Amino acid sequence: MPAVVLVLCILTIIGSVFGLIRCLLYEVVADFSNNTDYWRGYAFIICHLSTLTAAIIMLTRKVIGFWIYLASQIIYIGLIIYTLYSYSNFHYGASSDAQALSYVFTLIFSIPSVIMLVLYLVLVRIHLN
User: Fold this and answer.
1) 72 with 51: CB under 8 angstroms?
2) What torsion, rounded to 10 degrees, do the Cα atoms 77, 78, 79, 84 define?
3) Are 96 and 89 in contact (CB under 8 A)?
4) Could you give the number of structural domains in the chain?
5) Do 70 and 120 contact (CB within 8 A), yes or no?
6) What is the 3-state secondary structure (H, E, C) of the chain?
7) Average model confidence (pLDDT) across the chain
């Protein structure tokens, strides 16, 4: 297995595990605050689980893992954008500080995903069967 595939898969596994922990923390906080409408945490958990599964499949050099990863990341990035919209000033009447903070968190979580997605598209696809 080429080193680039191995390194990206290991980074993906680490990132997915941290993402799962973060999402579970969100769900615990939502439960403690009696927020029964918070479904996005579960959607993020599904994205992280499918990304984790895709990385494990890619370690076996199967191309289906690449396609699962691609779909999972597109959904994840779309969900981040949707979440940003739902916390924006237009939707909830949030203050400008809260809106700026939501943009910062969007960048923190989306830029690494976009970079990894590009790296997978450029470097990994050609190495899988």
Assistant:
1) yes
2) 90
3) yes
4) 1
5) yes
6) CCHHHHHHHHHHHHHHHHHHHHHHHHHHHHHHCCCCCCCHHHHHHHHHHHHHHHHHHHHCCCHHHHHHHHHHHHHHHHHHHHHHHHCCHHHHCCCHHHHHHHHHHHHHHHHHHHHHHHHHHHHHHHHCC
7) 84
Structure tokens at 81: 């954008």
Q: Which domain holds residue 13?
A: 3-127
> Which of 53, 59, 52, 56 is CA-nearest to residue 4?
59
pLDDT tens-digit readout, 42-67? 899 999 999 999 999 999 989 899 99
Query: pTM, whole model, 2 decimals?
Result: 0.82
For the stretch 63-94, pLDDT in tens is 899 999 999 999 999 998 888 777 665 555 55
Contact between 4 and 125 under an 8 Å Cβ cutoff? The reply is no
